[in-house]
Amino acid sequence: MRVFVAENDLIKNEDSGFELLDDMQLGSTDFKNKLTRQRIFQGELTRSIEKIDGVKYARVQLAEPERSIFEDNDAKPTASVVLVLQPGYKIKASQVKAIKNLVAYAVPRMTPEQVFITDQNGNSLSDETSKNSTDMESFKSNLEKDTAKKVSDVLEKIVGKGNVSVQVNADIDFNSAKATIESYIPLEGKSEGVVTSSQTEVETYENPNNLPNATDAMRRNLNYSKQKTAVNYSVSKEVKQVVYAPGTIKRLSIAVAVNKILTDSEKEELRGLIQSASGADFSRGDVISVSGLQFEGATIDKKAQEAFAEQYQKEQMFYFITSSVIPLIIVLILGCFALYILKNFISKMPSSRKLERRTQEEIIEQQTEEPEPEEDMPRIELSKKEVKTQKEQNINELNEAVMAAPEEAAKLLTSFIKD
Length: 419
What we know:
By secondary structure, the chain is an alpha/beta fold.
């Protein structure tokens, strides 16, 4: 039973949280209230952290220094977190970052930089968070952005700005590796190395027919000759130790969409430009996809531009009419109206022509009735002068009347326009 209980962690040490408020006593000192508040924060944070996958136990300790009235001497609170992880579990950088934010946002005036996290082996997890999340992710993001920008700069010169969409996905190996390479090569200018030793063995058998005492069995044997040669060469040796740094590109995928219907030959040309601009390597497994489509946004922008151009032309026409045509028409109407008013003023007065006609008729009547003496000729000339003087006097009086009462003249013109 004890082994079963210990194996399944049935008995756990629960940290107290808000339950401490249920045991508050009257007459507690400020020091005890401060410690109770600190224990509440620590207990609640411990419970929250132990809910995360891979965390078996957690312990949180807060340090809240005394507040100071001077800002330079006012220290901010700090926190230390110890994580006991599950056997064989490796915590992720995102989880460490989440724990730092969880503790920092739960305690007033605390920031994530003031939270220190370690595991049960004493390994600092805070440094790994910044290294993993910042260096690797930013390296991958910057590589993808730079590659997409290079491809976009090349294609926008051909199809125009805003007619290209480029997306890059890079598969990067951040593992570091070390390799030792040994290569044996011959000397320069030779296909073989240097001879260090040579050994030759020769075996020869004579014909037994030449022997006087040879038997028939011996005479049936033939001559036998054997030669064996062994040559030992020495070659040069080269040993290399290669360290593969992290950040090697394993595969690069580039997707390009062009706002134009492309032929097969045009796609191949664009694929070659993309390969040269991005540095893609097909032998490595890189993929380049080029598609020619009609962008929906481009159609909408074209319609918007046409509508804007039409609206602009209407506004320009309206401005021309209101600023040039209408004032000219008003001036012409006022001029005609002024001429009409002046004509009415003049028509009400005796005109010079009527006076001349009257004088001429009177002269004709006098001539027909009684022949006037030569002494009356100056009188006729005098009457013409009087008519001319009367005309000028009428014009002057009209001008003086208009100048004396311009408002009345304006009212008269206004009433005429209304009629």
